[in-house]
Amino acid sequence: MVWPGSRELRMRVLFLPNTPSNGPSARYRVYQFVPYLAHNNIKAVCHSALTPFIYSKFSPAGGWLHKIIYFTLSALFRILALLRLPFYDVIFIQKLVLPHVYPFPEVLLCKLGKWLGKRVIFDFDDAIYTVSAVRKKTLIERLSYPERVQRIIGLCDDVVVGNEYLAHFARKYHKNVHLIPTSIDMTKYPVPKFNEQKAGPFVIGWIGTPSTLPYLYSIKPALQEIALKHEVVLRIVGGKDYACSGIEVEYLTWSLDNEVEYICSFDIGIMPLTDDPWSRGKCGLKLLQYLAAGVPAVASPVGVNKDIIDDGVNGYWAESTRQWVDKIERIISFPAEHINMTRLARKTVEDEYSLAANLNKLIKVLSG
């Protein structure tokens, strides 16, 4: 419950995000809420597992040396947070910093936090208890500690997850599981203006990270077929080196400043997924961003995508190559017919997946 008239400090919360704010999961699960918590008399401080420089400089995708530096520093930064615990009422741990081994930094935080009488909350928005199915397993993934997530869940007072699939998993190990969907700050997304006289190629857009780019290969034949019949460009934000002959591909470098602008430049947003445990745990961020921007969206009916999209009402589902071609062509050929769809899409986000809709849920969890 929010007490807007009160000036008294209600609590002190130490957020421990697994990355700085340029990491999408931490940004949408933690950082964007901080100023709004302050407005509700909650002192919230973020102690990231990495600095922005380290996060951008030593991406795990850069090879073994980068991985060693990245994860060693992540663990060290999280352990250093132990020194801050006495000064806060609530400790909010976002994900694990060592995704595949025994989670000793989080175990230390949980045990010391409980010993000091603090409430400890664990948040995750991916199926971090399994591994991605769209790439080959690494050696460390093959040797991973299988009970790593269950171990932390059992040590916390409360668990927060991003969708019902993750909640089902967490409820096996804890009774206090709260579902707070990934939330969009709608103040950053202008009300879209429909332009019936669009010039130039039709922009099929995708936003993500290099690790999620392989999902695009599942619809490669559909994109190639569409390019044979229509003037289109595939605009990729946050990824590169997508091999897809027969279609023009444009790569844009993601930044926090240009994220919304790039999404608003799409004529259609796509979110293909494979149907596997890792993909079912995803929380639909890019799909929600498309809907918030008023961009017609086509997505695989996997996991939370099935909850977000009402097929044919606020967006489209597509499974087979034929369905991907048909749904995308429908938007290309009849853009005016999708004006109401985009309005309903934006309303879906406002009502269920916006920061405004979910702020009180977070405050309630923090309050205990």
TrEMBL record:
One example GO MF annotation: glycosyltransferase activity
For the keyword Metal-binding, the answer is no
Q: Which Pfam families does the UniProt entry name for this protein?
A: Glyco_trans_1_4
In which domain of life is the source organism classified? Bacteria
Question: SUPFAM superfamilies under this entry?
Answer: UDP-Glycosyltransferase/glycogen phosphorylase
Sorted keywords for this record are:
Glycosyltransferase, Transferase
Q: Does the keyword Hydrolase apply?
A: no
PANTHER family from the UniProt entry:
GLYCOSYLTRANSFERASE, TEICHURONIC ACID BIOSYNTHESIS GLYCOSYLTRANSFERASE TUAH-RELATED
Q: What is this protein called?
A: Glycosyl transferase group 1
Organism equals: Desulfofarcimen acetoxidans (strain ATCC 49208 / DSM 771 / KCTC 5769 / VKM B-1644 / 5575) (Desulfotomaculum acetoxidans)
